[in-house]
């Protein structure tokens, strides 16, 4: 099963918050798990005080002002930047809420000549107030640029953190190195043990210093020196998180991620794009046990747009089946069904869902918010190799696979070449493709991407047409990303799902970053000229193009700049025909293309693979006819010979089992019954698939209680799934 994810890399002062967050968490876990057991393998981490910039304020300012060419470029962009300027971001997450952590504040964008000196060394810490914690919004389109005066939380001229050289730091032992390793000497250990401890501690200090120096030079390179790295524009970044005393050692529960989601949605002006692994949220207090109010923010913003007759839209992309796919009727799928039920109750069922609350106000919710999934297909070009390996080993692939699966879930003995799995593996390793099998079409996934070959023209390197039909397989493309993009200007990206576990702070601990890039690009919104952020807009456009099949398939044998490690700027073809079609997310052209491709892909997968969930499956009887008839195995009768079926427990291995009849089709494969014409008809249908976008089936099992209450799901356990 393929995954779709989004990740970001950060450089600059905001990394200091991440370092402090890590040290806080490390020390909390150390106290909880290792200190109480007197485990000497690990030690607490200590952060040094942040040193001043090695270049000094004047030199640092000169770096931004030096160079006539750079000044001219800045002057040319000054007018646009004044229209699209982020205000300085307030102190970062948790101040006044999380006792162990003291945020440095995110790095605001500042024009040359507006660098503020840091507080003097050894000065009093910033005063923390309850009102300073959590996410605080920075700007809207109607705001004008403003810059705050010098404050103790401003870190504009402070260099990236790195430890002081040996002998120059405070003399206290805790500040000598990241490890606090003085206990062996205090306990009277001398001689070699003492020397070993000294060497270890010195190594820790040296390693920390080297890491800090590397970070400093790396940050200098990536901060935009002329002709190097990325542009010199600094983005506003703010770290937010979910944590509490039990998970992170904070004195109060922190919910700055949830605050950021709700605030950014409420203050969005035109469009919100969301990708997330889950979507469980509440519109009010009547959807217990769900408590997070992201759904309420969505309803509020949509109704405000409807009353103002404003064109506004939210796109949500989530997995078709949360967790992991499988037969949804199985008893082992109760957890998956429970999550699906909570998601549907958040979206369009139960009486208080987002769509129902909007519809109660006389507004058509489909005009303002829609939900989508991702799905793909490929062709497993291994039939010839598989048959040869089966013939040489005398073991079928399915037999070897079942034995391997059984070993994974149980104990793991040494590799046994006499077992069915071992025999098959040995034979498979000796099999090579014939000269006619080039391997060019081992995958056909490129066929539904930009510039890909038409699947109808792709050859099959074997003579068996029936084997080619069976080689096609489809799976959901699992959305694992957690990203929100508002108005192509603001991005939230991190580890937090849209559910209570990630948003409430009292459950799982999470972290995310809010990014506002002040470098503008001229674009349009609903057909009107509109300035957008380069980072946010290109990220949203790239994701939309990927799902629509408007980017070429990646070829690992032809690397480009986007294959390079972190620090090398990504390439994006601004102004290309494919870029222009997704540039305005409210345009009729984009909306029509997005929805028509999702619908077309959905219909193809419905016919070719009988993929579930599906809108035509309204109850369990529909599910049986549409899916189980083709894919589900019948129950194995577990009874001993000569014994009534209702007596006794499970038989001993291999004793008295009635073998289950084989399934008609392997899960995810083509339903041949739909294509009496053969493989050509299958390829004709698959040629219609473009990209990976499909509609989310909001009517799936709508006539059923998907997850009935019982031992595994009840008032005591339901919070596990939210």
UniProtKB/TrEMBL annotation:
It is an enzyme of class 3 (hydrolase). PROSITE patterns: PLD (PS50035). The keyword Magnesium does not apply. Residues 475-502 form the PLD phosphodiesterase domain. Residues 139-157, 181-195 have a biased composition (Polar residues). GO terms for biological process: phospholipid catabolic process. Residues 66-83, 102-114, 128-138 have a biased composition (Low complexity). The keyword Plastid does not apply. Residues 115-127 have a biased composition (Pro residues). Residues 52-195, 638-658 are annotated as: Disordered. GO terms for molecular function: phospholipase D activity. Keywords: Hydrolase, Lipid degradation, Lipid metabolism, Repeat. Its EC number is 3.1.4.4. Gene3D superfamilies: Endonuclease Chain A (3.30.870.10). PANTHER family: PHOSPHOLIPASE D. This is phospholipase D. It comes from Coccidioides immitis H538.4. The lineage of its organism: Eukaryota, Fungi, Dikarya, Ascomycota, Pezizomycotina.
